[in-house]
Design a protein that fits this description.
168 residues; Jelly Rolls; four-stranded antiparallel sheet; 8 strands; 22% strand
Length: 168
Amino acid sequence: MNVTIPKELAARIVWFCSRKNVLVGESIIDKNSTDRDIFIISRGQFRVHDDSAGEDFVLAMLKRGDIFGEMSFLDGSIRSASVTAASNGSLLVMGESEFSNMLDKEPEVAVLFLRFLAGVVSGRLRVANDALLQVAFGNGEIINQEFSHLKEAIAEMHAAVRMELDGT
């Protein structure tokens, strides 16, 4: 489930972020790393993937406005997946010091940002829960509206696999 940051919120936090230009194939996050930065995509496509099962499994393809790195940013845990640039692109990056600066200078924006991140994590957890119910109990256990998120995620994975096979 990709979630695009609202333009109004992005416009308010951009001043607290640094900008990073990246090249296709560049690794942004390595699974199990301990950095805590969060990233907002301003240009390009990015592949979220995990190769811990022996095969590089694409979890999501992200685009402009999408965010990643939110779990480690929020809880300080190690990274749960890798992220690689699928095209040349540009990212807004926020680390702990930038967030502290935002909290000091514009606490209401920091609270809005945290509420947005909580919604992102909660939404992704709901989709994962629904997927587990589907696997455990079969058809009929997932509400149609939530099932559309699963279909979307599967379509994104298929598109990512096609991109990998096509070499684009």
